[in-house]
Amino acid sequence: MGCIANIIVGIVGALIGGWLMSLLGGGGVTGFNLASFVVAVVGAVVLLVIVGLIRKLAS
Question: What is the 3-state secondary structure (H, E, C) of 1-59?
């Protein structure tokens, strides 16, 4: 993916991570700290897995 796509994946991943953490009763992205960074990374990984599965199914 290009630079813009990586930025979009990071932003959307942070949103997904925050949403998932709020469903699990934890805190979402609350600012620039280690816990928020981990939540954003987990969200981005989830998004990349979903995109990979969709690409695999589409081809």
Answer: CCHHHHHHHHHHHHHHHHHHHHHCCCCCCCCCCHHHHHHHHHHHHHHHHHHHHHHHHHC
* Closest to 16 (Cα-Cα) out of 43, 35, 41: 43
Question: Look-up: residue for tokens 């699990």?
Answer: 24
The token pair that represents 25 in the structure block: 């009763």
The answer to whether the beta carbons of residues 29 and 36 sit under 8 Å apart is yes
Compute the distance between CA of residue 59 and CA of residue 51 in angstroms, rounded to an integer.
12
pTM reported for the whole predicted model? 0.70
- Minimum mean pLDDT range among 25-29, 36-40, 54-58: 25-29
